[in-house]
Each structure stands twice: as structure tokens, then as C-alpha cells.
Description:
Layout: E1 6-13, E2 19-20, E3 36-43, E4 70-71, H1 76-82, E5 86-87, E6 91-96, H2 102-116, E7 120-124, H3 129-138, E8 146-150, H4 154-163, E9 168-172, H5 189-206, E10 209-214, H6 225-231, E11 234-239, E12 246-254, E13 262-268, E14 271-274, H7 278-282, E15 293-300, E16 303-315, E17 323-326, H8 330-343, E18 351-357, H9 369-381, E19 389-391, E20 394-395, E21 401-402, H10 407-416, E22 421-425, H11 426-430, E23 439-443, H12 446-458
Parallel strand pairs: 6-10, 6-11, 7-8, 7-9, 9-10, 15-19, 17-18, 19-22, 22-23
Antiparallel strand pairs: 1-2, 1-3, 4-5, 11-12, 12-13, 13-14, 15-16, 16-18, 20-21
Amino acid sequence: MVSSDKLKTIFICQNCGSSFPKWMGKCPDCGSWNSLVEEKVSKKREKSYERGEIAAPVPLNQVRSGEEDRIKTGIGELDRVLGGGIVRDSVVLVGGDPGIGKSTLLLQTTQKVAESSGRVLYITGEESLKQVKLRAQRMGIDSDRIDILTETNLDSILETLGQNPPVMAVVDSIQTTYSLNLESAPGSISQIRECASKLINFAKGKGVAVFLVGHVTKDGSLAGPRVLEHMVDTVLYFEGEKNYAYRILRSVKNRFGSSNEIGVFQMEEKGLVEVSNPSELFLSEMGENVSGSVVVCSLEGTRPLLVELQALVTPTVYGMPQRVCSGIDYKRLSLLLAILEKRENLRVSSTDVFINVAGGVWIDEPAIDLGIVTAVVSNFKNIPVKKDTLIMGEVGLGGEVRGISQVERRIKEGEKLGFKRCVIPESNFRNLKENFKIEVSGVRNLKEALSTLLKKASS
Length: 459
């Protein structure tokens, strides 16, 4: 007997989600090797819409903005990253390395939301009820408004959610959830797309905030990123090294707030504790009069973040000089070293150069270019830059120091933390509208900037 459902075999890239009729060693879309996996897709005939199911258009001036529907989590750093709180019918994807604190943060969030707004459902497909209970006891969480469900079947999850819709639901994780309508294995692109789509439809229809926990691949990106990131409303990444006590929650997509916003947490025995002043934390162990150490200001979303940049320049003992960096882009470092060699006649081609952002923070903003260059020259010439000096500016290929955005907000952050001097691009200096207690200097090029900084260091 022939089944009425048509089975079709396709090959889906597990990295980008593209599908192909035959197997290939390299995905033509994303370029990843050996990522195409064979999956059987059941083609079922969908029923047509009935008249009562057709949605009617609504005039724009009659649509509610929904600002009043945000749920305050009581965790200030999380509310900042989300844009002011949880939107009730939103879907948030949280990704990060195993053991970095995703489940810990979401369990703390469920407690806060349960206390303030109503019942919360925590769905776990990777842990048993006892394991969740032990973690909750360690964190001091005990509430009759938090329901725990151990289930991976999507149909059972949706049925439980539909019986008594909670204020907030957590699915930990989306890769373990599967639908019986598909023959592919849990965690495959087809299953992730199907499960996420149905959970999103439920969230939008019932006004429930849904948090999805996503695993990451070897390169640190979410499994199936193009599929998941385009479907959900907000994407949050947990960053940080296991050797450090703090964690950074970064928003890379947010339909309801600023993207690239960060929240800083510190891991303690009873869970994650928010850090209200991360700049002070990152600069707390900065040494005195050490060459190659400077302070720069990076703007993460709407928050100015002051961090310490460290450089070490030594004669190479290998045939090929090393370029090692932690916390910044390797190609950006190579570009800045080439500018120093060409424009400032600084012979770094025969030296090993090591750059580190103290604390393991990752920064990719061009405003730290001048700080990187200054740190390299400072260590190369063994002349320390004063600890109370703040440096910011983008460096062009001609050696010019280019303007940066929101410079006054960055200066205020340095002033608040007790810095006495600040070196900024000349174009920003001419447009300053406020008077600051901190001494502000404008520079046009690298020669002028290095001369100013070394002069201040030696004065």
C-alpha cells in the first residue's frame, strides 16, 4: 500500500540551512565542508484557509504599541539587553558555550518573573526534574509559581502550553525538541525550523514570552544560525571564559531595542550577580607605570565600556614573527602594524606582537585603534602611558586619526571613573558642546597623538 504522504530526500547544510537535491562536499552558500546531511521530508498537503481564518488588515493608528506590555525581570542587566524588559509575545534565543550560565540565568529570570507577573513554565529536555531541583536549591530558588516539565516532544509541549498559557516559557534546549511530523533526527535543521516556527506561532497567538536555549557550534555560532536568528525576535549570546568569574550577555539582534547592547554578570556560588559598573571591574587590577598598557573606551550598544589594552613587543626568535591577539580582530591588528611600519617608520616586522584585552572582553569597534597603536609603541619604546589617560580614535591608512561616534558620552564615563586626561580625534574635539572637568586633547594624526601621549607620560 502506497502512503498518501510523499517522501522526498534532500541534503541540508547544518551550518546555514540551505537545501540541495544531491550531496556535495562543500556547501555552495556558506562554504563549509562536510556539512550536508541527508534528511527525508514528508510533503503533506496543507488544508486551505477557511473564510473565518483569513486575517483582516488593521489601520496603523489603531494598533497598540505594546510598550506597556513589557515584563520587568528585576535583573537590571538583562532588562538593559532586552531593551527595557521582556515583550510578552516575543521569542528570545539565548546561545552560548556549554556551562557558561544560560540555564542559570534563565532559572533566575523565571523566579523574578514568577514573583512579579505570574506563572512560568520551564521546559527542559536535557536535565531531569531532580537535576533542575538541585540547581534551584543551590541558587535559593523555590516557588510554587514555577512549573518544571521534562519533555522533548513538540506536540506534548504545545498541548501543555495551550491548556494553561503561562506568562513566560523557557525551552531548554531547542536542539533537543523534535516534531513527529518530520523523520529527521532532533537537532537537524528541519527539526529546528519546524519546532521554532510552531513555538513562535504559539507565542504570537497567546501573548506568551518564549525563551529558546540554543547550542553553539565549534566556531562559537549558534547551530543553524541563519534559520534561527532570522525567525526569532531577539538573539542573545553569552560570552566569557570559564577561567574568569564574569559573563557578558550580548544582544546581536533585537526588534524591540538597541542591538549590540551588553549586560555584565559575575558568576558566584548562588548564581549570576549583575555588575552595575563593568568599567570599574575591568580596570580594578590595572598596574602602575607599565609600558604597553593603555585604557580605551568602546561603545557597546548604548553603554560606554572602559577596558585595559595590553601590548607586548619582543624580538622574534622564530623565522616568522608572531602576531597573537586576544579580544580584538587579528586582521585589524595586522593592518595597524602595517600603518605603523609605513607611516611612523616603526620596525615591527622583525618583532613578535601580542595584544590582550584585559579580562577576556571581545571588542571590534574601530574607536580602539588609537589605543592599540599607542600600546604597541609604548611597549616597543618602553615608555609607559599615564594610568589616568583615556585614549580613543579610529586610525586610517594614511595615519590620520578619524572621528568616532558619541564621543561626549565616552568622555563622561572616563570623567566619572576619575580619569584626568583624554585624547580624542581633532574632528570630535572641534565639535564638543560641553565643558568637562577632564583635560581633553584633540589629535589629527598618529605622529601628533604619539607625541602628545609620550609627552604627557614623561611630564
